[in-house]
Design brief:
Layout lengths: L1 E7 L4 H10 L6 E7 L6 E5 L2 E5 L2 E10 L4 H12 L7 E7 L12 H5 L1
Antiparallel strand pairs: 1-5, 1-6, 2-5, 3-4
Helix pairs in contact: 1-2
This protein binds adenosine-5'-triphosphate and magnesium ion.
The site of adenosine-5'-triphosphate has 13 residues, from strand 5 and strand 6.
Amino acid sequence: MKLIIAVIQPHQLPAVKKALYDAQVYKITVSTVLGCGEEKGYHETFRGVDKEVTLLKKIRLEIAVNADFVESTIAAIIKGARTDTVGDGKIFVTGLDDCVRIRTGERGSLAIG
Ligand SMILES: Nc1ncnc2c1ncn2[C@@H]1O[C@H](COP(=O)(O)OP(=O)(O)OP(=O)(O)O)[C@@H](O)[C@H]1O
Ligand SMILES: [Mg+2]
């Protein structure tokens, strides 16, 4: 089992959701986060003071999958999020020790899907 964490541009979320759906990945957690890649941010005025905003709004996806879904999930995220522009995002893949479905007590691979 792997936990796939992706940070993407907010406006690409609908395309990523569709690509994941098409790849039969239906269970995802989505959060709004602040992030900073190598973009230099933008300027914002608050109470008359101009301020450089270096943390940009991003969407974070968390998707736990069995081994046979890792590559198709990564491909779907890329399909939906890639615009060939800096800041398109990043995908992190990490091992996942266990998963528990609270309702049934099922564990591991059985509980993920
Ligand atoms: N090494 C990292 N550790 C933690 N978060 C990261 C890392 N790299 C990128 N992120 C997160 O992903 C978001 C998008 O990153 P981004 O796409 O700008 O990566 P990048 O390495 O700068 O690539 P690019 O050159 O395509 O912009 C960042 O705003 C940040 O939230
Ligand atoms: Mg960047």
